[in-house]
Structures are given as C-alpha cells and as structure tokens.
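Problem: given the chain below (344 residues), write out its structure.
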Amino acid sequence: MHWQQELRTSIRNVDALLARCGLDQASIADREGALDADRSWPVRVTATFVSCIAEGDPNDPLLAQVLPAGRELEPSPGFGEDPLLEARARAGPGVLQKYRGRALLEIASTCALHCRYCFRRHRRQAGLLDQGRGRDLEQVLAQLAAEPELHEVILSGGDPLMVDDDALGLLAQRLAAIPQIARLRVHTRLPVALPSRVDDRLLSWLRGTRLVPVVVIHCNHPRELGSDARQALARLAGEGVTLLSQSVLLAGVNDSVETLAALSEALLECGVVPYYLHLLDRVQGAAGFEVDEPAALELERGLRERLPGYLVPRIVREVPGAAFKLPLQGCGARLAGDGAEADL
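Solution.
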C-alpha cells in the first residue's frame, strides 16, 4: 500500500483505537477524561503502530504513548505550552536557530502519530512546504545562504517526511546549491510508524543530493521495531544514510534498564546508532510521563553496567538558551572519580 493511502486509514478517535487493540470502553478508568483530552490533542495512530500494540493490554507501553488520558488536562506546575521557549529561538518564518552552525526548518505541520508527550502539541503552525508558504521559503533560503558558518540544516515539523517527495527533493536541491551547507539531517518517526514511507522516491532524492544525509529516528520501545520498520531502516542504511536514534525517557513506557537495553540492541540490529535519550520536555499535559533525574541516573548506571559504551545513549535535557543539549550529570562523573576507565 502506498504510504499516503495507509495514512488515510489512520485511527482518529479513542473508541476506534481501543477497539483495534481488543479493548472495550470500560478498559480505561476515565473514558470521559480521555475523550476530553482527545478534543485537545486528537488521536492519530497508524495501522502499523497499532499492529505492534499487545492486544487486550490496557497498560501496553506503546498504547500509553498514543491513548489520551484525562490527566493531560490537569494543570502541572513547571509545565507550559512552549517548554523549550522556541519562540525566542525563531530566526525567521519557520526557522529555529538554537545551536551554532545549524538551522532547523519547520517544513511540515502534521505527524503520522500524535504522541501524548509531544512538546509542540500546543503550537502547531503551517510548515514551510505547506501550500501558500512559497514567499516565506524564498526568504528562508536567502537567509541561509547569507550565513557563512551554517553547515547543517535540520528538517523538522511536524514530521518532515509527511511532505511529498517532489517538494522534498526540490528543497534538497535548493539547499545543496548553498555551498557552505554540508549535511542534511531529517528528524522523523515515519520509518517506525509508517514504514511504507521509505519508498523508491524517498531513497532517490536522498541518494541524489551532494549533502551528507543523516536520518534521526524517533523510537521509544523495542516493540516499535516490527518487521516492516526493520525493512524500512535496512533500505535507508543500504543507501549509505547515517542512522541515529533519539528516544524520550517516559514513565510507564521505557523507564527500566531491561527495556532501554533491549531498545539499544534492537536499534543496532537495524543499523541505527542509539544516540540521544531525552528527559521529558515539560509540556503541559505530559507530566504523567516524567521520570526524575535521580531515577534517570540510576538507569544510566544500569545501562553502563550492562552494555558496551557505544550502545548507551547520551541522556540529555534540552534547556532553553543553552549552547548545547545538557548531559545528565552524576553517573559519568562518579565513575571517573572512582578511577574507572571510560568504556568507549
């Protein structure tokens, strides 16, 4: 099935999601709260992702990522609608510049999955490749061309692979015409949530650009890597695309050494380097997913005891205004202080 056809079959409401997972309305304690949360941030789940959810299990960790809950509507101190203060990092229409030498382009406004912890869930806006944004795109390209220190462009959104390949291929050509840009990074959930998106047309423009392509996969649990997702990642790796992962540390989803170790092992089997494990961005509605820093430090220690260093993702928190993502402090420092050799 073509990826756009599969996208049109996505599940779009709470009761349909429960039914596809072999659950009835009584399976969740606060159905009315879930329906209210759905109105705030509507359900969207692909058939592929649902197929990886354990049937009949209301506590399944994949289901927890996409099923609305009434707790999302409860005010949480310290949580806000723009937790990373991205409005301050906006350098133009659809452009964020947080870190030196890089620019992030918000080219799409939609995603194939509506994750309940999404840090942009409250501020979706039109992407640069959405209809009617042509003038903004020209302004952005001129702005990028005028920045001699710019070496990498990141495509984000929404999910950038929600955009048609003709538009993506043309954008890649325009970016490649700017001589100082060397790399094109794509942050996406689609190879996992909608593996059919990795098709010949996508591979063609990735293969055809002079820019070094880097695809950063968002994956939180080893069961998300079903056979279709593994085939999609193998196709990307076969074209020489550098594959990295970013995950979010989520209570009730992946907050155990066993799950995180299995995720790293599964990613490596797919040719993906486990790169970042983010502490939760404190967006309003996602407080129930938060894992505190002491618990995260214990998880890091457990992963270092179990895995070779290259399979331990960098546990980081993004802090507004910081020059880089801040690594979680503690475990690495204690190991160094004990005189232990670094396991690289």
